[in-house]
Amino acid sequence: MTSDSFPEVPAGPTIVALGGGHGLYATLGAARRVSSDVTAVVTVADDGGSSGRLRSELGVIPPGDLRMALAALAADTPEVQTWTATLQHRFGGTGALAGHSVGNLILAGLSEVMGGTVAALDEMGRVLGIHGRVLPMSPIALDIEADVVGLESDPRVSRCIRGQVAVATTPGKVRRVRLLPPDPPACPEAVAAIEQADLVLLGPGSWFSSVIPHVLVPELVQALMETRARKTLILNLVAEPGETTGFSAERHLHVLSQHAPELTVDDIIVDSASVPEGSERDYLHRAAQLLGAELTYADVADNGGATHHAGKLAAVLDRLAVPKERQTTPGRETTSWQ
Q: Which UniProt keywords apply (predicted)?
């Protein structure tokens, strides 16, 4: 058994995880240890690298984050591991295929052959032995536009920048993001999955380009507000260079509330070491009140680093997935698991 292997888990709670990139990959690695019924809802605004090239040349939904979600949920058998490694493989060299991921090319081709992205993802999921699903958050490719300060000599002046890569790497401070086109459609299957879920997970990940976009799709945020699922927000371990440089944990919550003022969540998972005891936790508690959430502090970092440990995070999710009596007052008492 490899270090990334784990025993088969029985069908547990129906889990839906929203996000993109490496953050969603980490969440899915934890969620699949809790249940075999896991659906990933993935951002579709990437405009860089292999995904950006295929998006521009073929007009497809950027496949990179979708591919990573498929790999995160793939079965742990030797045959499937070969397929997973192939999907993740990138071509070298200097030719037309240089830098392209094999999986991105396969998804682009399958989408054309099968007449749609969702059908292609379901077929690739079948090949990879996935019990849940991987779905795009929208059936169309989206763009991210951000208001950024700190790029001009006058720090009060805001500049509008466009594109996920530009937003993720800006040296300025992101104040607000929007999706283009405005009010985009949601993937119907993603909406249905949220409505039928027992546990919905949001984050971690690039806050402005992988997490917040989900609450900017009207049908998705409406489903998040109406679902009877337990909703859990997983905070980043550290501020991300570019997008959230200098952001405290509290600031992450305020930004989410600003973009989706009517959204509430039940739980917020915070790595114990990332927010020291004292005033910072007091500030975070008050920010959690805006979302009606209970803070759960736990050791979820991988060797104290900047990535989440799948096993540690799974242990917390396993407890949160169990129904319990909940208080009705926003900002409930903090729980701590070590």
A: Cytoplasm
Is the pLDDT at 330 greater than 80? The verdict is no
What is the domain count for the chain?
1
Name the DSSP class of 34.
T
Residue 34 in domain: no
23: helix, strand or coil: helix
Alpha-carbon distance 110 to 123, whole Å? Answer: 8
Tens digit of pLDDT for each residue in 214-224? 999 999 999 99
The kind and range of the H/E element at 227 are none
Instruction: Give DSSP secondary structure letters for 106-166.
Output: HHHHHHHHHTSHHHHHHHHHHHTT-SSEEEESSSS--EEEEEEESSSSSTT-EEEEESHHH
Q: What is the pLDDT of residues 280-302, one digit of tens each?
A: 999 999 999 989 999 999 999 99
Contacts of 196 (CB under 8 A, 6+ apart): 14
DSSP conformation class of 155: T
pLDDT higher than threshold 70 for residue 150: yes
Indicate the pTM of the whole model: 0.92
∠ CA 328-333-334 to the nearest 5 degrees? 135
Please report whether residue 228 resides in a domain: no
Region of 34 on the Ramachandran plot (φ > 0 left; ψ -120 to 50 alpha; else beta):
alpha
Domain extent for 153? 143-178
Q: Is residue 187 part of a domain?
A: no
Give the largest Cα separation in the chain, rounded: 60
